[in-house]
Amino acid sequence: MLSLSDVIAANEQQVAAKVMDGEAILINLATGAYYSIGATGGFIWSLIEKQLSIHDIVCTLTEHYDVAQSRAEADMLSLSEQLCAEGLVTASVSGAAAGVAPRTAASAKLPYQPPTLEKYTDMAEMFALDPPLPGLSYAQADKPDAKR
Amino acid sequence: MSTSISCVVPVYNGARFLAEALDSILAQTLPPTEIIVVDDGSTDATTEVVNAYARHVTYLWQANAGPASARNRGIALATGNFISFLDADDLWHKTKLERQHRVLTSNPAAGICITYLQNFWVTELSHERDRMRDHDFAKPMPGYVCQCLLARRSAFDAVGRFDETKRLGEDQDWYLRAERAGVVREIVPEPLVYRRIHDQNTTYQVYDSQKARGDLLDNVFKHLKHRRANAPE
């Protein structure tokens, strides 16, 4: 059970993620499942990448979107639980080292829609061909050289 | 139309295993009519290995540009009405082409046929093999990679070439594009391709690369948009 003070962070070891057209797209490379977090998902994922506490994410959310604090808290706790269960994020007890949410005063608040996590498994067979293998260290390489 | 199968072999510094790969092509019960080795700028003894097969292969060299580019170069040269690929470190079962060809011939509507793939580990990585024994990665799996493909030339006409800008997942991208283009796919559910796992495999090297991960995410996003656009009401 998560609490508002918990810090959540992307599970970078096995998750590839990117915000595209405002929507967060995630791949769990270990299971081959992929996900979309629609509506406010892209905004929220960009905050998760900053390793904030759920509370800080909620505060930033309410600054930018037209949503009550209590509603945003409930939605964020629920979403965080789902992301944890799918192995997409890790949660840790809040420490002083946590990042700070950017505070930019929004002039007009955006209409709010709760973030929804959608899961798809129809590409799992394709991702199974090249999974990140547990216990193996992956070196950095960005030149188009070897074969696969 | 008579059967003519082209086999494209992209190779980059693959001297160590290339002869085995070429032998497994020449041992096919339905051999390809041409083997095109595209040397992607190798600096090892690849040329010498190929020389020993000069009677059987067409060889061309290009400055290093990646496997997608090398395969595209091979496709451009290929004259067969079927096209296949084998990477320089992998092996085919001797019936691979014959089984796939039979499937495609019996289903004229199908544009491509894939087989299952079995990974195997080089001797130096036997500890890795033992560690992975119970992992799905050690079991036969559907081969959505180039070395498992037999495609009608018309499939490439419909889908296009491999995306040379991708660092990872260019074959995945091609299969997804084929699906979007409505190309019918057949599967031989038996491991007729053996993929060698060694310390030079690209996938082992690139997962931390943001570019590689971005390539996979782009594949997923395009697939998702297509899926939504075609979802039943």
Your description of this structure?
The complex is a heterodimer of chains A (148) and B (233). Chain A has 148 residues and is an alpha+beta fold. Chain A contains four helices and eight strands. Chain A has a four-stranded antiparallel β-sheet, with helices on one face. A two-stranded antiparallel sheet of chain A has the order 1-6. Chain A has a two-stranded parallel sheet with strand order 5-7. In chain A, strand 3 (23-28) and strand 4 form a beta hairpin. In chain A, helix 2 packs across helix 3 (69-85). Chain B has one domain (5-229): Spore Coat Polysaccharide Biosynthesis Protein SpsA, Chain A, CATH 3.90.550.10. Chain B is 38% helix and 24% strand. In chain B, strands 1, 2, 3, 4, 5, 6, 7, 8 and 9 form a nine-stranded mixed β-sheet that branches. Chain B starts with a strand and ends with a helix. The relative contact order of chain B is 0.16. The model of chain B has no long low-confidence stretch (mean pLDDT 93). Classes of the chains: A alpha+beta (148), B alpha/beta (233). At the A-B interface, strand 2 and helix 4 of A face strand 7, helix 7, helix 8 and helix 9 of B.
